[in-house]
Specification:
The chain is α+β, with helices and mostly antiparallel strands and 219 residues long. The chain has helices at residues 16-32, 58-66, 70-86, 103-115, 118-131, 139-148, 153-162, 166-178, 201-218, and strands at 3-11, 36-44, 56-57, 98-99, 186-189, 193-196. α1 (16-32) runs parallel beside α3, α4 packs antiparallel against α5 (118-131) and α5 (118-131) crosses α6 (139-148). The protein starts with a strand and ends with a helix.
Length: 219
C-alpha cells in the first residue's frame, strides 16, 4: 500500500552537501516507486545570513569560518564534487568561487512553494550557483532560474524586487532553528523522523522503507 509522506527538506542553495542530499533523496524515491507518495517542501536555512551582496571568496570564507587551510579546502571541494557527480550534478566550484547571500533565493522558493514548481526552481538555483557560478542574490539570476524552472518570469521579478515573503521566510527559519536544526541538509519526514546530512541514496531508501513499514503497521 502506498504511504503518503510529508518531507521537509531544510537546506540552503549555497550548501554543497544539500545538492548531494537532494540527489540521494530523489534517487531513493525513484527506487521505492509506489511505496511512497512524497510531498516535498523546501524549507529555508541560511548558512551565512550576514553575508553581504557582493559575497566572499570561498577559500577565504572557509578559512575564516572553519579554520581550513587552502590545501584542505581544495581536497574537501574535490570530494564534494565527486559526490555531486554521483547524483548527476556538475559542481564547477574552484578557488575563485564565491559565497553569496541567499535570502532572496529563499523568498523566491517560498513563492514557488505556493504556486507550484518549487523542486524545479531548487534545481535551477543549484545550477545557477554551483555550476554557473552566479550570484543568487542578483535579481536577473533569480528571474532566469525561475524561467528555467517553467515559472512566470514577470511574477518572479515582482517577488524578488518587492521584498515579498521576507517575514514568512524569517518565521520559517526561526521555526526550524527552534526545532533543533542547526546544520543542513536536514530531512524531516512526517514531522517526526530526521535524516541529517548529504546521505547517499541507499541510506535514504532504507529510511523510507522503514518509515513506510512503521506507518503501515501503526495504521
Amino acid at each position: 500500500m502506498t504511504q503518503p509522506m510529508k518531507i521537509d527538506f531544510v537546506s540552503d542553495i549555497a550548501c554543497p552537501w544539500c545538492v548531494v542530499g537532494l540527489g540521494g533523496l530523489e534517487e531513493a524515491l525513484r527506487r521505492v516507486g509506489d511505496l511512497v507518495a512524497a510531498d516535498i517542501h523546501f524549507q529555508p536555512f541560511e548558512l551565512n545570513p550576514n553575508m553581504p551582496f557582493e559575497g566572499q571568496n570561498v577559500v577565504e570564507h572557509v578559512g575564516q569560518k572553519y579554520g581550513a587551510m587552502p590545501e584542505q579546502s581544495a581536497v574537501n571541494r574535490k570530494a564534494i564534487q565527486a559526490r555531486a557527480a554521483e547524483v548527476g550534478f556538475n559542481m564547477d566550484t574552484h578557488d575563485q568561487s564565491r559565497i553569496y547571500n541567499t535570502f532572496d533565493a529563499h523568498r523566491l522558493l517560498h513563492w514557488a512553494g505556493l504556486t507550484g514548481g518549487q523542486a524545479a526552481l531548487k534545481h535551477a538555483l543549484f545550477d545557477a550557483y554551483f555550476t554557473q557560478g552566479q550570484n543568487p542574490g542578483e535579481p536577473d539570476v533569480l528571474v532566469a532560474a525561475a524561467e528555467a524552472a517553467g515559472l512566470d518570469g514577470a511574477q518572479a521579478r515582482e517577488v524578488v524586487t518587492s521584498g515579498r515573503y521576507a517575514d514568512e521566510v524569517r518565521a520559517a527559519e526561526r521555526k526550524w532553528q527552534a526545532a533543533g536544526i542547526n546544520s543542513v541538509p536536514a530531512v524531516v519526514i512526517n514531522d517526526r523522523y530526521l535524516i541529517s546530512g548529504g546521505q547517499p541514496a541507499d541510506a535514504f531508501e532504507q529510511a523510507l522503507r522503514t518509515i513506510a513499514a512503521e506507518t503501515a503497521a501503526a495504521a
